[in-house]
């Protein structure tokens, strides 16, 4: 259903393509756009990655009617719903699925929720961010709705024409979605900046409870929530941090990663890692940056002892300024680095820690 745009240009000119589906071009399609955005939230606020999904909805069409879907339970859900209601001028309504079933990022019940809301709302588009949760949820919900999702969208040129990276980010592919509604997509939040437009005080979207009767129809679930293990840290979230300091296998041990953490404290930075460092057990998986980890695009990315494999570059090459420290002058990381230091990382780290003042 997702095909290279050029291949479909001829079919679209004729107004039809593939299994007899009808396509609308330009203005007529823009008028029919309505979008359901999956909104992740934390501490009573919609997460920045979901605000980026709203920016993507705006890129689809300026007159897009957007519904934001939030799930969970308790006061933080309702606080987040209020935040959602005034988060973007395009938000038309906020849908709240108030149940413990949605309190955790379990993709199976969430996929059923998405199917139910989509079937009632008939949206032309459904957007989630390419977070761990979004990547888990979207394909399942798409399968239930019998459509193919378009993943990792980085740019939107028409309501159904998208740019997405392929080959670990080494090429960009323009695709046209030719399937039935909804067009389901995950977006890279680093490619869509949340709006800075201030909201008029009168523009607060209504908050509506979602009908959850579909939950009674599901007799048993194959998954259940056990617990969440996460680092207790005051440092910024890796996916949204302005500065990221990353360590690779060159750090050699979990103990040495503590040096990186000290530097991160001083810089107010998040700590990242390569997959090799994660696999070696130096740091937990949630710190992994790359094709199969988090995608980051901070103002400053400092890499210590990272070789620069394409799978790692896929997760950080859009960083504004890249600094690399590696003892091997031929390491591929230097091909994308703005500043490179060829030398022993422990010497450089030690010097930085000595010279840099503590963060106030
Ligand atoms: C399907 C697939 C998905 C993958 N997804 C990811 C992903 O999401 N993220 C990811 O990172 N990788 C991913 N990988 C793994 C990737 O291919 C590389 O193996 C990995 O990124 C290498 O990590 P590294 O740079 O830490 O280790 P290495 O390649 O071993 O590099 C270590 C570097 O440290 C330098 N070094 C060593 N000691 C010092 C010192 N004292 N001072 C200075 N420099 C030093 C060395 O010169 C070397 O360049 C994936 C691989 C596959 C096949």
Automatic annotation (TrEMBL):
Residues 35-218 form the Electron transfer flavoprotein alpha/beta-subunit N-terminal domain. GO terms for cellular component: mitochondrial matrix; mitochondrion. One of its GO terms (molecular function) is electron transfer activity. The lineage of its organism: Eukaryota, Viridiplantae, Streptophyta, Embryophyta, Tracheophyta. Pfam families: ETF, ETF_alpha. The keyword Repeat does not apply. It is found in: Mitochondrion matrix. Binds 1 FAD per dimer. This is Electron transfer flavoprotein subunit alpha. The electron transfer flavoprotein serves as a specific electron acceptor for several dehydrogenases, including five acyl-CoA dehydrogenases, glutaryl-CoA and sarcosine dehydrogenase. It transfers the electrons to the main mitochondrial respiratory chain via ETF-ubiquinone oxidoreductase (ETF dehydrogenase). InterPro entries: DHS-like_NAD/FAD-binding_dom (IPR029035), ETF_a/b_N (IPR014730), ETF_a/FixB (IPR001308), ETF_alpha_N (IPR033947), ETF_asu_C (IPR014731), ETF_asu_C_CS (IPR018206), Rossmann-like_a/b/a_fold (IPR014729). SMART domains: ETF. Heterodimer of an alpha and a beta subunit. Keywords: Electron transport, FAD, Flavoprotein, Mitochondrion, Transit peptide, Transport. Belongs to the ETF alpha-subunit/FixB family. One of its GO terms (biological process) is fatty acid beta-oxidation using acyl-CoA dehydrogenase. Its main location: mitochondrion. Its cofactor is FAD. FAD binds at residues 249, 274-275, 288-292, 305-312, 326. PROSITE patterns: ETF_ALPHA.
